[in-house]
Write a structure and sequence with these properties.
With 445 residues, this protein is of the alpha+beta class. The protein has helices at residues 3-15, 241-258, 290-295, 312-322, 352-363, 369-380, 387-398, 403-409, 419-424, 438-444; strands at 25-27, 30-34, 36-47, 52-63, 68-71, 79-82, 85-86, 89-93, 100-104, 111-119, 125-128, 131-135, 162-168, 174-178, 181-186, 189-193, 205-209, 214-221, 227-234, 266-271, 276-279, 282-286, 303-305, 383-385. It has 3 domains: 3-209, Immunoglobulin-like (Sandwich); 214-295, Zincin-like; 304-444, Neutral Protease, domain 2 (Orthogonal Bundle), CATH 1.10.390. A hairpin with a 2-residue loop joins strand 21 (276-279) and strand 22. An 8-stranded mixed sheet has the order 7-6-10-4-3-13-16-15, with no helix packed on it. Strands 1-2-5-9-8 form a 5-stranded mixed sheet, with no helix packed on it. Strands 18-19-20-22-21 form a 5-stranded mixed sheet. Bound molecules: zinc ion. Zinc ion is lined by residues 292, 296, 315, 318, 432. Zinc ion binds next to helix 4.
Length: 445
């Protein structure tokens, strides 16, 4: 391999994620630009005796054009050093005021930089006598609820190796639950290395005093022979075994339908009611939503949406599965827009469940969608996808022209907002796992 060829291949890899970033936009005397983080190290320390936490984040990042680099961190209070020197940060709105970011208030030339950020954890944290309970739980139907809610993070388009070095200064033993590789350094001090295909919506992290939750472990054997460690934990008053039994059932179903479990483990934080949230190889969920959330380890966290315009597919597919993989001759509505919003949109459209599943039930009348999904998963697991990539895959796989259907039914900027309300006769709310009345059901299906 020649040096020049090598250079091109390296550059291509380094900037691969930036192809999926939203467009740069005007800012001050230049442009606000998105960064590509190469490596992210987070030193997280908890001090229960003084009810404090401290996080030191160090990123190696690259930018491909000149400008003011963007990232995100929700709470106030952040100090930054760029290549060892103090640097000022600001907040900036995206075009169309769709979202807000943090911006480095210094115009930088293309290249590689080191950014050091000092912050505290303000959300999802409680202290007690010599103990801490801190979880980085995410949500995807509202924006700015990923990793950036707790520690500095890039946007969802960027996959980068993330390492946590976590310490709890307490003489009581704490448990560190995470969907990454654990290395014990000393008592209450662990290093967690997350896989390099993770992004700001992938990290599962929860630390608490030992004995705080009911705990059950098992091992599932994958169809490829791999042993998958399984952890179920719940509040003391709830039962872990029903989660474990159901998890085995869903694990077998999903492996049969889509192939081997791709993640290193399965972590289930079982809750009494409500919906759930998915992570790669992990979920915080009620028993009722467990199947839905485990499905997301395939579509959402196995094949990963690159942005807020791509997330509708995962909810549509999961919901299509929850409703028994139905087939419709017609979606039951004329047009809708789930995935053709602003490129700066960061959250999933909350109509993705019912509109998405009706659309997939319709596609299923044209070809065997489940069979196509199996191949799609095999091709794209652990990588990022957009709606366009999904359409292209399905068209190549089936030989059918499908773009027109997608544009009509799920990417249609002409749809009237209230249209679906009338058709479905239900309010547009987060109905992740909501049960329908019989009347609503017949209106939808
Ligand atoms: Zn879901």
């Amino acid at each position: 391999m020649t040096k020049i060829l090598m250079f091109f291949i390296l550059s291509f890899n380094a900037f691969a994620n930036l192809n999926l970033a939203p467009p740069s936009f005007n800012y001050k005397d230049g442009k606000a630009i998105f960064m590509d983080i190469q490596k992210g190290e987070y030193k997280i320390s908890y001090y229960p005796s003084t009810f404090r936490s401290r996080v030191k984040t160090t990123w190696e990042f690259e930018i491909a054009e000149e400008g003011y680099p963007l990232f995100d961190f929700v709470p106030w209070g952040i100090r930054a050093k760029l290549n060892g020197k103090r640097v000022r940060l600001g907040r900036v709105r995206s075009p169309g005021k769709v979202t807000r970011y943090r911006v480095i208030k210094k115009k930088l030339k293309p290249g590689r930089y080191t950014l050091e950020l000092n912050t505290k954890i303000k959300r999802g944290i409680t202290f007690g006598f010599r103990r801490v309970n801190s979880g980085f739980f995410i949500k995807d139907l509202a924006q700015k609820k990923f990793l950036e809610k707790y520690v500095p993070a890039n946007l969802e388009f960027d996959q980068y190796p993330i390492t946590f070095d976590v310490k709890v200064r307490s003489k009581y033993e704490h448990i560190f639950v995470a969907n990454g590789k654990h290395t014990k350094i000393s008592f209450n001090h662990y290093k967690i290395e997350y896989p390099n295909y993770f992004s700001s919506s992938s990290v599962y992290f929860h630390v608490f005093k030992k004995g705080r939750y009911r705990w059950q472990e098992d091992t599932f054997t994958s169809i490829n022979g791999k042993q998958i460690p399984v952890i179920v934990y719940t509040k003391k008053k709830y039962d872990t075994s029903s989660f474990m039994e159901k998890a085995k059932e869903y694990f077998d179903e999903l492996e049969r339908d889509y192939g081997a479990w791709t993640h290193r483990e399965l972590i289930i934080y079982g809750m009494a009611k409500g919906g759930g949230m998915e992570y790669p190889g992990a979920t915080a969920t009620s028993l009722r939503s467990l199947g839905h959330e485990m499905f997301h380890s395939y579509f959402a966290k196995g094949v990963v949406p690159a942005d807020g315009n791509s997330g509708w597919m995962d909810e549509g597919l999961a919901s299509w599965r929850d409703n028994g993989y139905k087939t419709f001759d017609h979606p039951g509505y004329e047009m809708f827009n789930l995935g053709a919003h602003s490129p700066y949109k960061r959250n999933t459209d909350d109509n993705s469940y019912r509109v998405g599943r009706a659309f997939f039930a319709y596609l299923n009348s044209k070809f065997d969608l489940k069979r196509s999904l199996r191949g799609y998963y095999a091709k794209y697991k652990n990588s990022l996808v957009t709606t366009q990539m999904f359409i292209k895959y399905l068209e190549e796989d089936t030989g059918l022209y499908l773009e027109g259907e997608f544009f009509q039914f799920v990417l249609n900027p002409n749809h009237r907002k209230n249209f679906v309300e009338r058709i479905f006769k239900t309010k547009s709310v987060n109905e992740h796992h909501r049960h329908y009345s019989k009347k609503e059901m017949s209106a939808i299906l």
